[in-house]
Amino acid sequence: MAKVVVLDLDSVPRSEDSRPNGYEAFTGKISMILSQAGEVHEPVYLMCVQCQGSSATPPEKCVSLRKQVRVLQDNSVSASMYTIKQELDHLDLSNVVILTSSHRRAVLQKYQEFLFTALYNFEYITVFDDQRAFSDSPTSLTSGEITQVTDEVSTFLRQLPAVGKMTVLMSSLVPDSFSHGFSTRTGGISYVSTLSSLNLFSSSSRRDPRAVVLENIRRLGLQVGFQPHQFHLVKTDHASDVWVVGEEGPERYDGIVTNQVNVVIAAPGADCMPLLFTDPVAKVIGVAHAGWKGTLMGIAMATVNAMVSRFDSKTENILAVIGPSVGSCCFKLGQESAKEFHAIHPDCVRDDGTSKPYVNIRLATRILLEQGGLLSNHIHDDTVTDIPSVTLCTSCHSDMFFSHVRDGTNFGTQIGFLWIKE
User: Fold this and answer.
1) Is pTM beyond 0.70 here?
2) What is the DSSP string of 335-384?
C-alpha cells in the first residue's frame, strides 16, 4: 500500500557524539521500509521534518536510497504536520509512517489528533528513546505540553489566508430582532477541492479535521457577529429528535429550539435542507436539518411543535425559511421512497419512467408545514418570487455550495444559523 514515510529529524539526539548513531538508526529503519516496499512494488515518499534553526540534516544514506526526499523546514511542528497532510491529500494517500523518538511520538500524536481525521492511518516507529531505547509505547505529555500544542495549532491556523471572499445569504422574511444567515462555500481555509473553502463540518470519513472546521466557524463568527462558545450545531441523525437548549437531550438530534438570547443554533446542509424558524411574538427560534429521511420522519413539524410545547409559540406566528438545498432538478430517489413523497402530494414526484424519479423535498416540507398550521406566506422557499431567494440548488451552484450529490463522499458542508438579539 502506498505511503508517505516521514523522518522526524528533530528527534535525533542533539549530542554530536550520538548523532551519527542516530542517523545510522534512521538509515537502517528506512532501508528496511524501502526494501519491503520494493518487494510488493509500493510507492514510498520520503519527507524530512525539522524546525528552522535545527542543525540536523537528512542522512545522506537516506537521500541516496530515494531520489525524491523533501525536507520540510518550518517555524512550527503544526506547519510541518500540515504540509504532510497537504502532500497526502495531493497524492490521494492516507498512510503515514513516522520515524521518531518515544517522547516526540507522543507530541506528534497530539498534533495528529488536531490536524488529521480517522481517515488517515499513522504508524509510528520509535527509533530513539531518552529512557528506554526502541520503546514501543509513547511517553505521556504534561498538561503544559498539551496546552502548548493546542495554542500552536490554533495560532498556525489563524494565520492561514482565506480562500475566496466570505458570502452569507439572508432572508428578508426574518425580522430584525433575529440574526441569521446561510453560509456559502468561500472564505475559509479548507483546501481539498470538494471541501474548499468554508467547510463547517468535520467527519471521521472525510479529510477536513476538526481544528480546521473550528477555525472556519471562528471566521464565520467574526463576519456575522458571534463567538464560537455561543455556537451549537445540530448532531445529525436523519431523524426527528429535537434538543431544547438548556435541557438534557438525546445523543443525536436534527432540531434545536431555544428562547435564550445570543445562543447561536445552526443546522448543516450539503443537499439536505437547513431550516430556520422564528417566532417574533414569543421570541423563540428553532433550526432543523432535513434530508429526505428526516422530511419523511417529520423533523420540520417536530421542531415547530417543540417551539409550541416548550415556549408557547403559536404556529400562525412562526416564520420558516428553507435554505440552500438540492432541488428537484437534481435529486432522485428509488421508487419505494418516492412513493412516500407522492403520498404527501403528487407534485412532489416527477416520474420520468425510470427506476429513480426526481423528488422535490422542499415542496414536501412546505406542504407538511402548511398542514401543521404555518401560514403559506410565512414560508420562504423557491416558490416565493417577490423577494430574493435563499433556496438555491446546492448541486447546480458549484461555485457557491457544497453538494453530496455532486461531489461524492468527501463533500463539504454549509450551515443555516440563527440567534435572538438582545
Assistant:
1) yes
2) HHHHHHHHHH-GGGEE--SSSS-EE-HHHHHHHHHHHTT--GGGEESTT-
